């Protein structure tokens, strides 16, 4: 047993040493935007996970809110209170608490949609690029038609057809997001399937599925990682846009887009904090994700080196 633990610890140490000695880790240590972006993204995830345990109230529990606390300004403005650091909205909900709860839902929607769209897009790109012929023509024409429409406009149309809801927002984001993965992976597969290792795999009698998933797919994931990182930020903006327009999540659910919408109606009456702070938080999240995505793009794309 001790020898097994010792072997496991040795392997972990060697992996850590390998990562520390890698070129990408060296460049990361000397890339301030990449560090800032990753810190923002990690902190955002941690806030979304553990933040609700430390908020002064659950802004979506009627027992915790009171209309007597409605439209309180931020704590540093006259009339504000330290209990509600960023102020309250028209229902007496703490804006800081609402932002934390809203970020949890927005990140859940965007990350789930990214994983699903990535999965479907990779499958479609692998099949189209490897087999070619009519399958490739049909899939690529579908992507061409879909990419000719603005993604947000297409998502609004899908939500209008299916109605509001968290699950429906995820479906809408997947339907507008998978095409970019499909085109990217298909281009990489077209390049990889002409390599000698693919011919050697066919010669020894490997099935197409084994060649596609065990040999070609790992060599096509570099641009997918970059695209996935950036798409999380894009999906956060799209979800916020849908909720702001009233076709996203239900009004009973916490969402950063809904917070901005609720505050926009009273912004010009002096209650600016209800919209401004959720909007700033969306900007910070997307900014950090884009910084991280730019770093990964520069490091993982050999054409940019």
Description:
The protein has 305 residues and is mainly α. It has one domain: MetI-like fold (Orthogonal Bundle). 70% of the residues lie in helices and 0% in strands. It contains twelve helices and no strands. Helix 4 packs parallel to helix 7, helix 7 (166-192) packs antiparallel against helix 10 (221-244) and helix 11 packs antiparallel against helix 12. The protein is elongated and about 75 Å long. The two termini are 46 Å apart. The model has no long low-confidence stretch (mean pLDDT 83).
List the helices and strands and how they pair.
Elements: H1 2-20, H2 23-29, H3 32-50, H4 95-131, H5 133-147, H6 151-162, H7 166-192, H8 196-203, H9 208-216, H10 221-244, H11 256-264, H12 273-300
Helix pairs in contact: 3-4, 3-12, 4-5, 4-7, 4-10, 4-12, 5-7, 6-7, 7-10, 8-9, 10-11, 10-12, 11-12
Shape: elongated
Count of helical stretches: 12
CATH architecture: Orthogonal Bundle
Structural class, by secondary structure, is mainly alpha
CATH superfamily: MetI-like
Fold-level CATH name: MetI-like fold
Q: Portion of residues in helices?
A: over 70%
How would you describe this structure in keywords?
mainly alpha, single chain, elongated, 305 residues, MetI-like fold, 70% helix
TL;DR of this structure?
The protein is mostly helical and 305 residues long. Helix content is 70%, strand content 0%. The protein contains 12 helices and no strands.
């Amino acid at each position: 047993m001790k020898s097994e633990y010792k072997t496991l610890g040795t392997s972990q140490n060697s992996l850590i040493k390998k990562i520390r000695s890698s070129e990408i880790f060296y460049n990361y240590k000397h890339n301030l935007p990449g560090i800032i972006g990753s810190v923002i993204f990690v902190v955002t995830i941690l806030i979304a996970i553990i933040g609700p345990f430390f908020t002064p109230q659950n802004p979506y529990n009627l027992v915790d809110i009171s209309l007597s606390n409605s439209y309180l300004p931020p704590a540093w403005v006259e009339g504000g209170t330290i209990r509600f650091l960023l102020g309250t909205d028209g229902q007496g909900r703490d804006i800081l608490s609402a932002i934390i709860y809203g970020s949890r839902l927005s990140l859940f929607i965007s990350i789930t949609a990214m994983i699903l769209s990535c999965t479907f897009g990779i499958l479609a790109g692998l099949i189209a690029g490897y087999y070619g012929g009519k399958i490739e023509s049909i899939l690529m024409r579908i992507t061409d038609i879909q990419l000719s429409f603005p993604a947000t406009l297409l998502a609004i149309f899908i939500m209008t057809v299916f109605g509001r809801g968290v699950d429906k927002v995820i479906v809408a984001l997947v339907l507008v997001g998978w095409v970019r993965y499909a085109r990217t992976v298909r281009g990489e597969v077209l390049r990889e399937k002409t390599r000698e290792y693919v011919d050697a795999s066919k010669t020894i009698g490997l099935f197409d599925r084994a060649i596609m998933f065990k040999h070609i797919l790992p060599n096509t994931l570099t641009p997918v990682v970059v695209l996935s990182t950036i798409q999380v930020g894009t999906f956060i903006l799209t979800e916020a846009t849908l909720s702001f327009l009233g076709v996203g999540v239900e009004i009973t659910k916490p969402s950063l887009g809904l917070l901005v919408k609720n505050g926009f109606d009273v912004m010009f009456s002096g209650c600016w904090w209800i919209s401004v702070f959720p909007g700033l938080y969306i900007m910070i999240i997307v900014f950090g994700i884009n910084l991280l995505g730019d770093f990964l793009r520069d490091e993982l794309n050999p054409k940019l080196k």
